Amino acid sequence: MIHFFQAIYDWMIGFFGVGNFIKIINSGDYSSFLTYDGFTSIIGPLFPIVLVIEILVALVLRKFNAIDYKISFFSYVLNAFIGRFISIAAIIFCIGLFEKYAIFKTTFTWYWFIYGYIVWEFAHFIYHYLGHKVRLFWCLHSTHHAPQTMNLSVSYAHFFLEGTYADIIRTTVCILLGVNPPMLFVIMFIDGFYGGFIHIGEHLMKDGKLGFLYKYILTPSHHRVHHAKNPLYMDTNFCNLLNIWDRIFGTYQPEEKGLAIEYGITREMKPNSFLDSYFGEFACLLKDVYKAPGLKNKFLYIFMPPGWSHTGDHKTASVTRTEFMESQRQFNQNEFETLEKEAVV
Q1: Spatial separation of the C-alpha atoms in residues 27 and 18, rounded to whole Å
Q2: Which of 44, 89, 143, 313 makes an SS bond possible with 159, Cβ 3.0 to 4.6 Å?
């Protein structure tokens, strides 16, 4: 029984990330809080604590539904034992392999930190964009988009290999562009914290626009748009904090007033099913590859965007969004012509 409670205690310490914080308190050396490890020991627990607060608020408001957390919970459990260690190994491997090929070296200073964060966002944009535009990578990323509600736990909903795929791309790009490795770890920590925060649900933050910051950074409102399956919102807002690359590449999309966000993925799936959210896209891909005529088409199904078809009847996000925009334009044109006729009469 003692071992059982000890296991529960260790799990809670690990989940809330307060292990280092407790060690520093027990040591009595509070100056350690001024170091990187000390800083992360303070900031790290904030996210899981806010997640618990979000759940408690939902309970008080009688809006809590355990099924909304099912996919995220099982993903977290699986990734905690597998994905985390593979990702760390991938990061270390990429740093060791590519650091000697960096175009130049940077130092850990405030101006290089700004440069490093802009480069990090560029690397994140590449990984995230490919995660939506390459079918194989979408199979890894789709688990994160499967939940049909938005709350902080969604940040835990990932296929166990997605972190590895993401970290290989982001680390490689950053290291080749000269980002200092120690500084990269600081950026990763900040990005991870903010990346979790922007999944905050409407129970704790109804608007999600963060006031004047909405114009300058990507907010929870922007990320809710990214998680939407509405045609207008599909495949937009790929950055995490700085929206510079979304604006440059034309994927920036603000939340439209009056257009309610519909969360989830467009494929018909079993509602809130962990197995379908985790393996469903792989099953669909294998089915398409098996049925595709010829080796070329089989290859294209793997690397073309989700919704691509060898028949030419594409249902990709780009096609769906373009068709929606055209239908809206036509609707507005018809409305305008109707008003003109009424005005003449």
Answers
A1: 14
A2: 143
Category of 235 on φ-ψ map: left (φ > 0), alpha (ψ -120 to 50) or beta = left
Tokens read off for 222: 């922007």
Could you tell me the residue ranges of all domains in the chain? 69-310, 315-345
| 3-class secondary structure, 114 | helix
Give whole-number Cα distances, 248 to 45, 122, 144, 213, in Å: 34, 11, 25, 19
Q: Is it the case that residue 36 has pLDDT exceeding 70?
A: no
Q: Is 198 exposed, middle or buried (0-12, 13-18, 19+ CB in 10 A)?
A: buried
| CB contact at 8 A, 139 and 157 | no
Nearest to 42 by CA among 16, 72, 68: 16
How many CB atoms are located within 10 Å of the residue 304 CB? 18
Task: Pull the structure tokens for residue 120.
Answer: 């990090």
- The pLDDT score that the predictor gives to residue 328 is 83
118-127 pLDDT tens trace: 999 999 999 9
d(CA 53, CA 44): 15
And the tokens for 6? 């000890």
d(CA 331, CA 324): 10
CA distance 106 to 179: 6
Per residue in 279-292, pLDDT (tens digit) is 999 999 999 999 99
The two tokens of residue 162 are 């997605």
- Contact of 214 with 221, CB cutoff 8 Å: yes
112-145 burial, b at 16+ Cβ within 10 Å, e below that, comes to: bbebbbebbbbbbbbbbbbbbbbbbbbbbbbbbb
215-241 residue pLDDT tens? 999 999 999 999 999 999 999 999 999
Of 166, 154, 165, whose CA–CA distance to 228 is shortest? 154
* Tokens matching residue 228: 């939407």
CA torsion sign for 225, 231, 232, 235 is positive
Question: Is residue 20 within 8 Å of 167, Cβ to Cβ?
Answer: no
